[in-house]
Design goal:
By secondary structure, the protein is α+β, with helices and mostly antiparallel strands. It has three domains: 37 residues; 134 residues, no CATH class; 143 residues, Protein Transport Mog1p, Chain A. Helices cover 33% and strands 27% of the residues. The strands form two sheets. Strands 1, 2, 3, 4, 5, 6 and 7 form a seven-stranded antiparallel sheet that branches. Strands 8-9-10-14-13-12-11 form a seven-stranded antiparallel sheet, with helices on both faces.
Length: 333
């Protein structure tokens, strides 16, 4: 870090010597902005949070070091486009000896949609946010999440109250150099009617796909890894209905190199493995589980849709067709 700072200072001195007045100010501001983009202040220091004092410098991790910090969980972070992670620890400023501690993790991702994707992997639906925070967020006993542009904030505080965590998250929100949550356009392909609030997920990479559903397992889908880039398959999912009759809809955008025939054959094999009464009517594949819930699959061109576990066959079919039409960009869908 020190070498980079000295290099930036040297460049600023040389350029400023060749300029005068307003030109030098503009050059200096440009270099400062570039340096902040590479090494944002929020990744270096978070201070001034009422009631809390940072206990030391942050631990910072890039791609290579992430495996050492997240035991067994780095792969899913990397698949969404990871840049760096800064980890801060705080103690109550009035009682540093207290057993209470807040661990603040700030992930800087490659884009706003990347940050939302990673954030969405923990969504189950019906999450409650903290009043007054506009970007997407949720809070639960001992933990909270916030996503704002390309920053994902994870707060771990097992001994703190919801009030303490919520106020802390609100203070961090104000310090992030970002404006809003950026949701992928693909989420719009999921019909709103009957959708469980805050259940929408952006699925990228094989780890997230396997975690989403056994029906997304298999290399034939083409989810690939971080190296696959834009050519990989991606998907979007949401839950529908009310407990206990909750189902899931998944819309899949197949990657450019994916063999569509292999996808049809692979999904058919999975249906036959997990379901009963499996049959195909034209392009539509269907089956039921032991509880009598319906599972549907249909693919058209490079778009596919899955309904998983819906108790209403007719409603499931209507939802699948509507989502697939939206994925294909059909007018009026």
């Amino acid at each position: 870090m020190r070498r980079s700072s000295y290099a930036a200072a040297a460049v600023l001195t040389l350029l400023a010597a060749a300029c005068t007045g307003q030109e030098a100010v503009l050059v200096g501001n440009g270099i400062n902005a570039a340096g902040a983009a590479v090494n944002p202040p929020v990744m270096r220091a978070v201070d001034g949070i009422e009631g809390w004092k940072r206990t030391g410098p942050p631990d910072r991790y890039t791609q290579d070091g992430l495996y050492g910090y997240i035991d067994g969980g780095a792969e899913i972070v990397l698949s969404y486009g990871f840049r760096e992670l800064a980890v801060f620890r705080f103690k109550p400023s009035a009682d540093p000896a207290s057993s209470k501690e807040i661990v603040l993790e700030i992930y800087r991702m490659k884009s706003g949609t990347s940050a939302f994707g990673l954030y969405s992997t923990k969504l189950e639906g019906e999450e409650k946010g903290w009043l007054g925070i506009k970007p997407d967020n949720w809070i639960s006993p001992g933990q909270a999440n916030l996503v704002k542009d390309n920053y994902l904030v994870n707060i771990l505080a097992p001994e703190c109250t919801d009030q303490e965590i919520g106020l802390f998250m609100a203070a961090v929100d104000l310090k992030l150099p970002a404006y809003r949550t950026v949701r992928p356009e693909g989420l719009d392909r999921l019909p709103r009617e009957g959708q469980v609030p805050s259940s929408g997920r952006y699925i990228k990479g094989p780890v997230a796909a396997r975690g989403e559903s056994p029906f997304l397992e298999g290399d034939f889908w083409g989810f690939g890894g971080p190296e696959a880039g834009k050519s990989a398959t991606e998907a979007f999912s949401a839950k529908y209905g009310t407990a206990p009759a909750v189902s899931k809809l998944i819309v899949v955008e197949l990657g450019k190199a994916v063999d569509a025939g292999a996808v049809d054959a692979g999904v058919t094999a999975l249906f036959n493995e997990y379901l009963r009464g499996v049959k195909r009517e034209g392009a539509l594949l269907e089956g039921q589980n032991e509880a009598g819930r319906w599972f549907l699959f249909k693919r058209e061109a490079a778009a596919a849709a899955l309904v998983l576990g819906d108790p209403d066959r007719a409603a499931a079919g209507t939802r699948l067709e509507k989502a697939l039409a939206r994925a294909l960009g059909q007018p009026g869908a």
